[in-house]
């Protein structure tokens, strides 16, 4: 997947940009707060129909403006594709592929595969289990269309059961309808997550070992109530207790992905550099996994080198400048590592300066 051209109007602090991009490495250089992450977020938006940072869509519109617009011109396995997203304040956003509006945005997810590595990923380790489930859901739904629909169905059944619990309904037959649905859809989600992780975990470990030069042992372990057996039986057995609590305490909405360094939880004992290595390895494994689908994902690397020692930086530079990845967008506040990547890569590259939302091509890259 190659984004050849990107046009931006009024997206966060970027008033206007029209960029011809390299099919290899695109480096964005600028001081703090200049708009590098915003630029990557525009690329992210065109893949996921939403920002990776702002939950409220209108916050992506440049202050004091009325709308934002993004246009991306892609090459998807040799076929040109044009994506458009426009949002006016207080109106529904429009998202179009080749000038035709999507009726459901979920139909677009996965069409432009993309992996983002960003400082905000630290929530994956430090945050609650919902962060890790979100990660699993995001990756799996990019290659498995049914997954998202099954998850939506599960969540609807869960919401219905929770409503019964809140109303303190006692009639068993009313619960059974929703519990059977939760068990059915929950099992399907569990099987998808388990199958995905079986393939994913060894690749993650391989990346971690490569970057850390094999100095640490890391583990990922999937935990789910469904591993204990039939979910409908479990739900029936906890119904009285759940009614007192007012919510459902069993099911795949409580699944977790335990992250360990040696025998201990990563979030408690991992250093900042180890945490960063863990996250980079997770995301690169995600890339590898999506890549198997046949369309190489776009890779966004935001401020990736912060907190890493020289050995780990060197390993990542080697990885990034090699042949393993397709089109890459990378940001940094200084040139040191970007120059190293540029020196080592055999791929084509563009270098841009980002200054107060203005993005200009640094012409030395054409020399
Ligand atoms: N809706 C918006 N309208 C105008 N400016 C915005 C909007 N949303 C965010 N900004 C501005 O964007 C800037 C942050 O940009 P960004 O996060 O891209 O910086 P960065 O170059 O990645 O910096 P760093 O190196 O610190 O990560 C802030 O100055 C913020 O005020």
TrEMBL record:
SUPFAM superfamilies: P-loop containing nucleoside triphosphate hydrolases. It is found in: Cytoplasm. Coiled coil: none annotated. GO terms for cellular component: cytoplasm. GO terms for biological process: DNA replication; DNA synthesis involved in DNA repair; double-strand break repair; SOS response. Residues 3-341 form the RecF/RecN/SMC N-terminal domain. Keywords: ATP-binding, Cytoplasm, DNA damage, DNA repair, DNA replication, DNA-binding, Nucleotide-binding, SOS response. It comes from the Bacteria. ATP binds at residues 30-37. HAMAP family: RecF. The RecF protein is involved in DNA metabolism; it is required for DNA replication and normal SOS inducibility. RecF binds preferentially to single-stranded, linear DNA. It also seems to bind ATP. Belongs to the RecF family. This is DNA replication and repair protein RecF.
């Amino acid at each position: 997947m190659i984004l050849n051209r990107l046009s931006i109007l009024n997206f966060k602090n970027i008033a206007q940009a029209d960029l011809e991009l390299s099919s290899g490495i695109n480096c964005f250089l600028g001081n703090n707060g200049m708009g590098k992450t915003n630029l990557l977020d525009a690329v992210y938006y065109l893949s996921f129909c939403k920002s990776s940072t702002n939950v409220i869509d209108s916050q992506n519109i440049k202050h004091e403006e009325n709308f934002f617009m993004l246009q991306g011109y892609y090459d998807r396995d040799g076929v040109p594709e044009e994506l458009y997203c426009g949002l006016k304040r207080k109106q529904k956003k429009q998202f179009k592929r080749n000038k035709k509006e999507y009726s459901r945005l979920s139909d677009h997810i996965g069409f432009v595969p993309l992996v983002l590595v960003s400082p905000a990923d630290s929530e994956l380790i430090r945050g609650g289990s919902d962060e890790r489930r979100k990660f699993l859901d995001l990756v799996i739904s990019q290659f498995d269309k049914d997954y998202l629909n099954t998850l939506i169905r599960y969540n609807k059944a869960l919401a219905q059961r929770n409503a019964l619990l809140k109303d303190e309904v006692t009639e068993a037959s009313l619960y059974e309808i929703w519990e059977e649905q939760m068990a059915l859809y929950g099992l399907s989600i569990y099987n998808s997550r388990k199958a995905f992780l079986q393939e994913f975990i060894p690749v993650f470990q391989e990346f971690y070992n490569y970057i850390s030069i094999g100095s640490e042992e890391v583990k990922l372990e999937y935990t789910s109530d469904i591993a204990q057996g039939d979910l409908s039986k479990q739900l029936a057995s906890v119904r009285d207790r759940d009614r007192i609590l007012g919510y459902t305490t069993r099911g795949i909405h409580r699944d977790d992905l335990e992250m360990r360094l040696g025998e201990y939880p990563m979030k408690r004992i991992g250093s900042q550099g180890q945490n960063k290595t863990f996250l980079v390895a997770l995301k690169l494994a995600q890339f590898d996994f999506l890549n198997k689908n046949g369309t190489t994902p776009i890779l966004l690397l935001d401020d990736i080198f912060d907190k890493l020692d020289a050995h780990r930086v060197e390993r990542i530079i080697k990885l990034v400048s090699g042949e393993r990845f397709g089109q890459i967008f990378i940001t940094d506040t200084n040139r040191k590592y970007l120059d190293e990547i540029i020196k080592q890569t055999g791929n084509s590259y563009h270098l841009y300066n980002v200054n107060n939302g203005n993005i200009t091509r640094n012409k030395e890259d054409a020399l």
